Amino acid sequence: MQTRQRTGAKQPGPETRRRDAEASENDGEEEEEDEEDADGYSDDNESENDGENYKKTNVYQPPRDNGSDVLQSSLLLSKDPPTVVQKQPVFNQKTTFRKSNEAESQVQPNTLKKHSQPAAKKPVGQSSAGWFRMCILVLAVASVTVVWHVWKNQSSKTLPREEIKVVQAFETQMKKLRNVYPNQDPRLWERIQMFLVKRLNTTHPHSQPAILLLTAAQEAEKSLKCLSNQIAEAYSSSLSAATIKIDGAGKATLDSDVVKLEVDNKLSSGFKEGKKAAVVHRFESLPAGSTLIFYKYCDHENAAFKDVTLLLTVLLDEKSLRKNLRLLDVEEKVRDFLWAKFTNSDTPSSYNHMDTDKLSGLWSRISHLVLPVWPENALPKEGCLQMD
What we know:
It contains 12 helices and 5 strands. By secondary structure, the protein is an alpha/beta fold. It has a domain at about 160-345 and about 350-370: Rossmann fold. The radius of gyration is 58 Å and the shape is extended. It is found in: Nucleus inner membrane.
């Protein structure tokens, strides 16, 4: 009876046996994986095993007919299955920070070496270059100081006290004139004093004479005559010499050849006698042809006398001049006035008249310094209007 029951029981078919075998194999693999997860992670392939464990624990598995109890029991037998999912991100973060720290520890020393080497060498180069420049600067300053002292000693030897007294005497006279003529432009005194003091320095020989041209309008005629006379006398007296004076207005009606000869004789004889300055009043009133004689005395390179000063005056036709005129404007006014006065379209090539080419050459020689003179309320009572 028992034998029949056993034999009569339904035996499992091939499909059922195959499923049971696959379930047992899967249970064995999961038990091994759970044991590895419980023990930790492998050092050799830690990132790959962690990823596989994370996938396997989260993969949905359908229930099986047979072996489901075994699968549940294997999951229960594992020590701490949920910790695999919870610790996975922690292990990834730690390993990431550990690797990044190791990489930084390897990179930072190299980077520090690269930056520290130039930083250690740069101050040395800069300090040496700085010391070198400092030495050059000190040597340059010392050289300039030595040269200056040598030049000063030589200058003091070549400039005698008498010449220093001459310059001081002239400057004193100019200060007095500045008080007598208070209406004059400060630029007039500055330019004239600078111009003539340079002439008083005889350390180096002069290559050309000094030419000064003063101009004024009709209202300042007397101031122009007095001031030009006194400036020339201040210059000559500082050199213990006399002044040559020529009145152009008194020769306006004479023949130009005669005037030319008279002017030439007076200038030549006076400079030969030792006179150092000459004043030619009313230059515009001289006959046009006679003014060509000033080529001889005012030339830049071939002047007959090079260590002398000539002061010319030009009285304009205008009644007054504006004080806000620039010096360049004043110079242009004088030039245009002389052009209209000396040129004659009727006989342009005549010897007794001035043509444009001759006047251009003359103007370039007499226009070294052109300055305006303004009217004064009171003139000195020392006979400054008298002529010799």
